Amino acid sequence: MKKSSIYGILSIVLIVGMFFTGCASKNNASQLNTNVSNLPIHQMHASFVYDTDNIREAVGICDYVFVAKVVSCDGTEYRNVITTEDEKGNPKEVGSPYTNYTIQVLENIKGELITDKPIPMISAY
Predict the structure, then answer these.
(1) Is pLDDT at 28 greater than 60 in this prediction?
(2) Which positions ≥6 away from 88 have C-beta within 8 Å?
(3) What H or E segment, with its residue span, contains residue 7?
(4) What is 70-101 written as a DSSP string?
(5) Percent of the chain having pLDDT more than 70?
């Protein structure tokens, strides 16, 4: 009797679960109104620990300040990649671009970087 009660309860839970799953609405991209002019606009504001208009404060907060020349641009890689949908509902990968350079330090102004050979540098946007 105990086994039949457990099977009965599991059957009811399964049937109720299938009912609610079958009644759920599909989120079909072709049925959505994607008028861009109706989308909300959220402004972003940056906050810095120093006055970005004051070059002395900018130099003071940095570890290295130097004059260099770019020897080569070695390509761009994307980090923190996520998959999203484009306007047609197709999957699209987006991420933060990081450009890889090789630079030659010509003069150290603050800090001591090597000046006798090129060094790699990554620039984040």
Answers:
(1) no
(2) 29
(3) helix 2-23
(4) EEEEEEEEEEEEEEEE-TTS-EEEEEEEEEEE
(5) 69
Contacts of 73 by beta carbon, 8 Å cutoff, 6+ apart: 99, 100, 101
Neighbour order of strands in the sheet with 91-110: 65-85, 91-110, 119-124
Q: Evaluate the CA torsion angle 14, 16, 19, 24 in order and state its sign.
A: negative
Phi, psi of 73 (to 5 degrees): -100, 115
63 burial via Cβ count (<10 Å: 0-12, 13-18, 19+)? exposed
- What 3-state DSSP class applies to 57? helix
Token code pair at residue 57 = 């404060």
Given a cut of 60, whether residue 31 has pLDDT beyond it is: no
Token code pair at residue 28: 């079909």
**Whole-number pLDDT of residue 27:** 52
